[in-house]
Amino acid sequence: MVSERRDPPFGGSVVFLLMNLPLGVLAFGFLTAFVSAGAGTAVVWVGVGLLAVVVLAVRGAARLERARVYALLDRYIDLPYLPLPAGKQAARWKARLKDPSTWRDLTYFALLFPVGLVEFVLVTTFWATSLALVGLPVYFRWLPGGEYRFPDWEVPWLTVDSTVEALPWAALGVLFVALSVALTKALAGTHARLASALLGPTVAQRRRMERWWEDAEEKNLVAG
């Protein structure tokens, strides 16, 4: 079940979005290295062990990602996994590989790098522009020549060399701050929905889990 809160907290959204790119790079590097090495050496069985590590790592990382989404975006995502069958390891591995959630977890981490890159560029660009405009009345006097030239020092389209001239740009910066806040929350909310779609249970999986728990309760009652 996903939290009903639609508007993620601003501070958590900023931290979450800035974390996505480094985590995406880490996930991309891990998946590329281990999947390629595992697929290339599967014929000598070494690769089977590497691919098994990928499956376990992805499912474990997905649990941490659900916790990160909840901690920073206040969105709770249910675990989609059915309990593994008791018995031999072969049956347990078969259950992991047949579980669609394993492959959806893998898809999420494969997408985290490109999605995180877009989010990072948008957030840093908007906030850098906003803060630069808001602070222009203060810092322009410490720039070379005591003035701000846009877009280039050699060929300026406009020059700001007084506080009065900087104030309209600071007002524009306040508008950009409001837009940046809205953009930050919108990106975080969109990512939370992506995480819910890929890391949470589908309707069919919820029904399977409900049937599994009902069967387990009946067996316990019969055994009792």
Automatic annotation (TrEMBL):
InterPro entries: Put_sensor_dom
The keyword Transcription is assigned to this record: no
UniProtKB keywords: Membrane, Transmembrane, Transmembrane helix
Signal peptide bounds: none
Transmembrane segments: 12-36, 42-62, 106-139, 166-188
Pfam families: Sensor
Entry annotated with the keyword Transmembrane: yes
Domain (Putative sensor): residue spans on this chain: 16-199
Protein name, per record: Putative sensor domain-containing protein
UniProt organism field: Amycolatopsis rifamycinica
